[in-house]
Amino acid sequence: MLPPEFPRVDIMRIASLALAILCLPGLALAAAAPKVDQAPAVKAVVDCRKITDSTQRLACFDAAVANLDDAQAKGDVVTMDRAQRQSLRKETFGFALPSLAIFDKGASKEEVSNLTLKVTRVSHDAQGHWLITLEGDQLWRQTDSEVLARDPRPGSTALIQKGALGSFTMKLDGQPTIKVHRDQ
Fold this sequence. Notes:
The chain has helices at 8-32, 40-47, 54-74, 82-92, 109-113, and strands spanning 114-124, 130-134, 138-142, 157-162, 168-172, 178-182. By secondary structure, it is α+β, with helices and mostly antiparallel strands. It folds into two domains: 40-74; 83-182. A six-stranded antiparallel β-barrel has the order 1-2-3-6-5-4. The longest helix is centred in the N-terminal third of the chain and has 25 residues, at 8-32.
């Protein structure tokens, strides 16, 4: 029970303000994610479809594809298929780089929120936290003090999941989760 000097209206205002402040980091991250437009060389190919005359449309396609091929050869345009994006997503999982969100296009929510890899090396840091190296030389450091019933070992299966506010958890061989941070 609140003392009478705490009017209910003021508590509601404070609660609303606190909620708004807690939501700001999420809004800032959403605003920070850049909108990705088509590269000009790709847009030129797509725009050729608008031409109704067959001869002109073919000439447009020929010129636009030649420009696209040249831009790709120079490194001005990079094309990736789904398998290449999945591989890159796997390599960069755990890094907080909003500009990498372009590689999430077409992926399911589950694909971008968790990753399962094999453990290749394990050790401890000076504080006794686990240092776990996964396939692709991903180095993850335990950030909590949870104790695992069984020590992880090379060959163990690690399931890493995105948590709230940019945090990550790891489940090793089905054990309870530990909090982790990607170091490399």
